[in-house]
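Supplementary Methods. Inverse-folding protocol.

Structures were first reduced to a discrete structure-token string of length 97. This string, shown here, constituted the complete conditioning input.
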């Protein structure tokens, strides 16, 4: 499957899953997966939430952050891919400057 990210509309989502700030995202989903490109300004976060029916893939293109998945902290930086499996709970924070 190919995803034409340049053709997807970016939307601003304030307090995504009760997180801080506004996350700007392009999202695509299938029956059991979800992929997104997001821009998270410094201090922004995606609040803790559970993926009950689909996994989510987050690839870091730039910057630094932290994902906490099922209670385990995972440092994020350019080139890292964070995957939240079905049934798991995670949150993501931009910890950069």
């Amino acid at each position: 499957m190919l995803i034409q990210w340049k053709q997807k509309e970016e939307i601003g989502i304030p307090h995504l899953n009760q997180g801080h700030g506004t996350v700007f995202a392009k999202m695509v989903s299938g029956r059991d997966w979800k992929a997104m490109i997001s821009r998270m300004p410094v201090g922004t976060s995606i609040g803790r939430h559970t993926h009950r029916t689909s996994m989510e893939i987050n690839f870091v293109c730039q910057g630094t952050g932290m994902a906490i998945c099922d209670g385990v902290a995972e440092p994020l930086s350019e080139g890292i891919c964070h995957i939240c499996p079905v049934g798991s709970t995670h949150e993501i924070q931009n910890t950069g400057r």
